[in-house]
Task: structure prediction
Amino acid sequence: VIASNGRAHRKIDGRLMQQANRAMVLNLIRRDPSLSRASIARETELSPATISGIVDHLLDEGLVREEAAIVTGNVGRRPVRLLFNPSARVALGIAIDLREVTAALVDLGGTVSETMRAAVPVDSDPATVVDLVAKVSRRALKRVSPDLVLGVGVAVPGVVHWPDGVNLFSPNFGWRNVPIRAMIEQRLGLPVRAENEARAVALAEYEFGAARGMRTAVFIDVGSGVGGAVIIGGALYRGEHGAAAEIGHNTVEPGGPLCGCGNRGCLEVFTSATGISARADDALAAGRQSVLASTLPHPVSVEQIMIAAASGDALACELFDRAAAYLGLAVANAVDNWDPDLVVLSGSVIRLGGRLFDEIRVFEQRFVLKTGTGSVGVARSMLGADAKLAGAASLVISEYLTTPLAAS
Ligand SMILES: [Zn+2]
Result:
């Protein structure tokens, strides 16, 4: 009995080893397009026969292709380079927002295509939102062969419990304990991963964008709300209850304006798109003079406030100066707390442009602890408006790339 248990264990260990080696070889090829079979064998210290077996398997699966051999005359043949094929598989990415749901196909290189959208009516309940999600998802899935689809990733605002995908609390929607993963899984009949939207964006920037190749990075997403995420040593840090790095709900002014979370004076109420609009409305209602007073309809949008700031309107300038100061403070605190390689800023407010990003950096430099080891980089998202869809899909893609073809 002991002997047969030993054999069973060796068999399982062997299979795990094979998966780990496949993942290692695939990721080497993905990161460096100059590699050949021989150079991979040298780098990994695996035998040439083992490497050939793995590469043949990856070629069969379409994940890798060989560069056409080039005849270089009398200097002999250059080793054939192996190239990652990002279009070999796709995941469906879904982004759930207060006003809109989107679904798109995302390939293994993070390229987003076939984006389908539907508007979300005000005060929609979870079932209505999931109906819309199913509709846009089916439209996107029709555009690809079903055997190429790895699964579905969902990015949703609020605190999401991992891995069961229950949206514990979404201040924006007013939801509590919505089993969003199970609801979408049931409708689409595909495996689903669901995660907080800021964490999904962080994963996309880590896999495909501004934080590629970093080990530790902090992400602050400034959109209709403010989300945060941290990747430590190459892995998302979720905390014990899925609520780590809720930077948007750090208190910056005790007793300040009421936040959707029920507290007062959170970062979000001064810096998110909805927060900046609401603060403009408060000031106008209190009788502040501004070109925004004649802007209809109310509440004024953050885009209109940005335009007013560019033309020198004092109220609009004050609102953005305060947002820049508090975001600069948030970045400085993030650097002091996590000692990252990089802080990445994303979201619709950052994409508004103007002087906001540069001012955030000025305030960050003013507040951050000077350790004498040089300053930590602060970068804009490289993925722009597609970051959330790419991020949702990368919940599935990054899992696949660490255990490619585990079943075979
Ligand atoms: Zn809050």
The longest strand covers residues 100-107. The radius of gyration is 24 Å.
